[in-house]
User: What shape does this take?
Amino acid sequence: MSNGIIGPVDKVTNMSVDLGPRIIMAKNEVLGTADNISIKVAESTLEELEKLKSAHEIRLVKMLGESGGV
Assistant: This one.
């Protein structure tokens, strides 16, 4: 028997996800369109990746302190 903590077996890292054509918005303002958006997901489960691919709206939130920014 192992005393270590074991995470989900379906976890993936550094996975590229193609989201297809999207409208680019900031708050409620349309800033442009993109023919194809691709993002690299650092860590996720397979189930979460499927939710991401089928989502109608995806929010990107800047993480403070990650790159020394304010």
